[in-house]
Write a structure and sequence with these properties.
Strand content: 25-35%
Number of helices: 8
Radius of gyration: 21 Å
Largest sheet: 10 strands, antiparallel
Amino acid sequence: MEWRAFVQRYFDAVHQSILDGQHQRLLPFYLEQKPLLQHEWERIHRAHRQMRKRGAALRGVSGQVKPVCWLETDAAMDITVVWTGKSRYLLKNKTYEEASRRMLQLRLDKAAGQWGIVGTREQRGDQKSEGIEEQELRGTASVTAVEDAVSQPLLVVHGAGGYRADKAVAYAERYWNTTNPAYPRFNDDCTNFISQCLYAGGIPMLMSKERGKGWWIRTGKSADWSYSWTVAHSLYLLLKSGGPPMRAVAKKSAAELVPGDIICYDFNGDGRFQHNTIVVTMDTNMMPLVNAHTTDSSMRYWAYEDSTAYTPSIRYAFFHIRGV
């Protein structure tokens, strides 16, 4: 079998398993079945459980797979693909469509003339691993320094600061699965994307010459940015402070949020937040649906139980954005 046909058959099986919750059809695709298949099955199971808790009924799953690059040897092949998937579901007689875009790496073993998956890795996703910018923060600026900096007087630029949540949401819908060429894109891009959404909604930058202060980005030849613009935990600290430029108000539950608000995720429950999303609408249960980057997501249910980074210890922080 030609490898492209094998990859297509695999993702067809994944789509069907997401739809009916049965993972047995994935067994023939894995040569080393235990950890790989268990991880994928647990993610699918959590997605089904999340749907049931919401009272939603899945109606259809579809997707496209595009090979980006591949390297073949006599024994194996490493393939990087971009998978764009859509799920349609019914909730209280209203149909919703959730979409996501992932970059995956597959390793195929050609032993005994049989194709089989021996490894998978999500190259970009809401992973528990930290990105380069997060490591850089730890190496050059303490969390305390970043937290203290938000109260210092800094130069506010770009507009009067009235927050237009509708414009932030429109930006999130426009760029959920692509990159605005005016900005850089990071491997862990979730916070950079949320910062862009807030800025598009009229939140002014707090400029500083130090990366550990303010909330800002400079593009062009001298491109640079603050940690709070690109690092999930740093943005969380800024929102938690309640100070400028967002003047965020902490809420106790997701049900208290409205479109344009922000959710922060601590997947491990250790007090360090690794992911951020923006609320784009509410479902018929009046619960948030969110857009996000890294694993590019549109109209995704806020709880993220279907995330590859999910753990039972997950903690959330909910913020309503007021603006300066």
